[in-house]
Amino acid sequence: MNKIIVYCRPGFEKECAAEITEKAAAHNVFGFSRVKDNSGYVIFECYQHNEAEQLLRDLPFSSLIFARQMILTGELLRDLPSEDRITPIVGMLTGAIEGAGDLRVEVPDTNESKELMKFCRKFTVPLRGALRKQKILLGQEKPFRPVIHVFFIAPGCCYVGYSYSNNNSPFYMGIPRLKFPSDAPSRSTLKLEEAFHVFIPADEWDERLGSGMYAVDLGACPGGWTYQLVKRSMMVHAVDNGTMAESLMATGQVIHHRADGFRFEPPRNNVYWLVCDMVEKPARVAQLVADWMVKGWCREAIFNLKLPMKKRYEEVSQNLTLLREQLKENHVHSEIHARQLYHDREEVTVHVRRFWSAVPGRRDER
Ligand SMILES: C[S@@+](CC[C@H](N)C(=O)[O-])C[C@H]1O[C@@H](n2cnc3c(N)ncnc32)[C@H](O)[C@@H]1O
């Protein structure tokens, strides 16, 4: 197996290919990407045998922006006989992996694949049984073992491979399934909820998304993001000239400031979260978040960067570099991750966590 499949949002294959090629090269793994527009995936083929496996281990999945999933695979299996699709799939995995903890039979996230997905659901049951019989898959699901992926790109035509559970997306097809809460004021509430699932480990939610925390929401109206914070019993300063949903104001947990988000200063010094969904130039938003972090005005931030029409990967990389450099220059120890979420369209979502500032007393300086 010397290929990596990366799932992505259809229409973003070129960005995904540019990213995997660049980041693999930074790990001294060289190869080329096969891209088909609007297919929802990219195949990265390594020049050297065995390097794809090394990449699967060493390239942190969390460092990828346009990838929804990252899998090691071999040649495409074509024309699987309808009377026995299982034998060639088991054959592909035999010797490559044993004792996997989970099986996912998946498709690209395209309209054309919707029909195929019905087949995948049915096919999972007999395939699971066959893989267990050969001990390729363990008898019970084990979250810390590798995951087997069978990725159908057309009827009778699939890639077969695996991902490591400590370096993959835990979600089927790389997409967290979220239900729109009927009392939320806007659909964009799902973006922030997805960001929490992607960026904050589940066992840290109580500590980092806990009740009683203070948050600032810049560009808050009508309140889809504020809704997520209020639902977790936080107190929210919502900044926007627009109108906030009555239902949120009635909770008593929200203070609405009709102000410019770029000039707003937090009214207290224990704000934990900054979230920002203002539609603005990405460089301006990145600079704003850098300023908040450097001034020690918040601990963690989640915000959107709108993508340009062209050179989308380059633009987003530049903005992230700007943010990283500013934090470094100001001795702010932090972690930055960005991802094009399922609920993002022409944008990516960025998460910044500040651990500590090397400059003592910085918060008192403002
Ligand atoms: C995409 S909407 C936010 C949706 C919101 N996150 C939600 O879930 O309901 C963008 C908002 O940013 C606000 N906005 C744009 N520029 C702003 C600025 N400079 N200061 C404050 N709000 C701003 C707009 O008024 C608009 O309500």
Automatic annotation (TrEMBL):
Annotated ranges, domain Ribosomal RNA large subunit methyltransferase M THUMP-like: 84-164
Domain Ribosomal RNA methyltransferase FtsJ residues, every copy: 186-280
Start and end residues of each RlmM ferredoxin-like domain: 1-71
Name of the top EC class for this enzyme: transferase
Pfam families linked: FtsJ, RlmM_FDX, RLMM_N
List of residues binding S-adenosyl-L-methionine: 188, 221-224, 240, 260, 277
Keyword Transferase recorded: yes
Localization per Swiss-Prot or TrEMBL: Cytoplasm
Gene Ontology terms, MF aspect: S-adenosylmethionine-dependent methyltransferase activity
Record keywords, A-Z: Cytoplasm, Methyltransferase, rRNA processing, S-adenosyl-L-methionine, Transferase
Catalyzed reactions: cytidine(2498) in 23S rRNA + S-adenosyl-L-methionine = 2'-O-methylcytidine(2498) in 23S rRNA + S-adenosyl-L-homocysteine + H(+)
Active site: 306 (proton acceptor)
Keyword Methyltransferase: yes
InterPro entries: RlmM_FDX (IPR040739), RlmM_THUMP-like (IPR048646), RNA_MeTrfase_FtsJ_dom (IPR002877), rRNA_MeTrfase_M (IPR011224), SAM-dependent_MTases_sf (IPR029063)
Coarse class of the protein's main subcellular location: cytoplasm
GO cellular component terms given for this protein: cytoplasm
EC number(s) on file: 2.1.1.186
A GO BP annotation: rRNA processing
The protein's role, per its UniProt record: Catalyzes the 2'-O-methylation at nucleotide C2498 in 23S rRNA.
Assembly description: Monomer.
Family: Belongs to the class I-like SAM-binding methyltransferase superfamily. RNA methyltransferase RlmE family. RlmM subfamily.
Name of this protein: Ribosomal RNA large subunit methyltransferase M
Originating species: Biostraticola tofi
Origin organism lineage: Bacteria, Pseudomonadati, Pseudomonadota, Gammaproteobacteria, Enterobacterales
